[in-house]
Amino acid sequence: MRNNGTLFCLFRLVVTNFNQRFNDKFEGIYVVIVQCETMLKGCYIQRKRRGTIFLPDHQGKIFGDKNTKKIVQTSNFDMIFDHVMEFAEFILLLEERLKKPLPGVTAQLRMSSNIRMQELMKNNSREDARQSSVLLLLYPREGKTSLVLMLRPEYPGIHSGQISLPGGKFEETDDSLIFTALREAREEIGIDPGQVQVIGQLTEMYVPPSNFMVTPVVGYQTALPIFTADPKEVARIIEVRLEEIMDARNRKMKVIKLASGYSLDVPSYDINGDIIWGVTAMILSELQEIVTEIREGSFRTG
């Protein structure tokens, strides 16, 4: 059974982000949650300057007190409410789903090249592999659930010029792989770890070319992230809407030229001309399957 109290708390956090974006359109009116009985009944609107409480009626209007005689149409409020609820419920369902058995290698291999598939089927785990983790950060942008990727700069190396999730190798001073993912995300794209709520992990993956075992860490933040790219690590920050990952039209076969000079025909996500393939695409493939399960209601909470 869904935890309405948790949902309410998450709603209250997320709504701050929308207040900041739509404040001008609201003409100084802020959304505040005063009380929640069942599934967020009892939403109130509070005027910023005078602190007057407004109650939206069933016709979608906000009526002021006798002194102001002001009526404000609530089309923006309705839109904000719907977007906030959509994100909040999705995060809660995703957190519950991540506690259950994951789709695993089967989902990962859907976005794997034939060569990588053969390598993984032969040996999906190596005792001498170096531990690493990446951060899959979800957040609301313009009413849409989004995630952040980054384009690696060109350099003499295996992953030169590739699109990846923020992350890196585990250091001896790291408390955990979760700490590693948050630390690397801060260093590479300026994410504030204090704003990120970790809700689970996806299936770890062995990467033969670099001998890394990669653990995808899933987290969310309710405020819109402020990104600052480290030019040594990041050529460009790429924000992607979750819907673009889910859209089958964006999954295409592409010929990729490797650093070794060889060309490889690989499945990829082609999003606005950005080609996501390899490990990152395989991680997103597992996320895609989980989101599909959530939307189809094919798993039970609790």
Indicate the CATH architecture of the largest domain. Answer: Alpha-Beta Complex
Coarse morphology: globular
The CATH topology of the largest domain, please? Nucleoside Triphosphate Pyrophosphohydrolase
Q: Cα-atom Rg, whole angstroms?
A: 22 Å
Provide mean pLDDT, rounded: 77
The share of residues in helices is 25-40%
CATH superfamily of the largest domain: Nucleoside Triphosphate Pyrophosphohydrolase
Report the sheet-strand fraction: 25-35%
State the CATH class of the largest domain: Alpha Beta
**What string gives the helices and strands in order?**
HEEEEEHHHEEEEHEEEEHEEEH
User: Structural class, please?
Assistant: alpha+beta
- What is the oligomeric state here? single chain
For the termini, the CA-CA separation is 6 Å
Number of domains: 2
Q: Explain this structure to me?
A:
This protein has 302 residues and is of the alpha+beta class. It folds into two domains: 4-90, no CATH class; 101-296, Nucleoside Triphosphate Pyrophosphohydrolase (Alpha-Beta Complex), CATH 3.90.79. It has helices spanning 4-22, 75-98, 105-108, 114-122, 177-189, 242-246, 278-296, and strands spanning 29-32, 44-47, 53-56, 61-63, 71-73, 130-141, 144-151, 163-164, 167-169, 197-201, 205-207, 212-220, 236-241, 251-257, 263-271, 274-276. The strands form three sheets. Strands 6, 7, 8, 9, 10, 11, 12 and 13 form an eight-stranded mixed sheet that branches. It is globular, with a radius of gyration of 22 Å. It starts with a helix and ends in a 6-residue tail after the last helix. Residues 22-75 have low confidence and may be disordered.
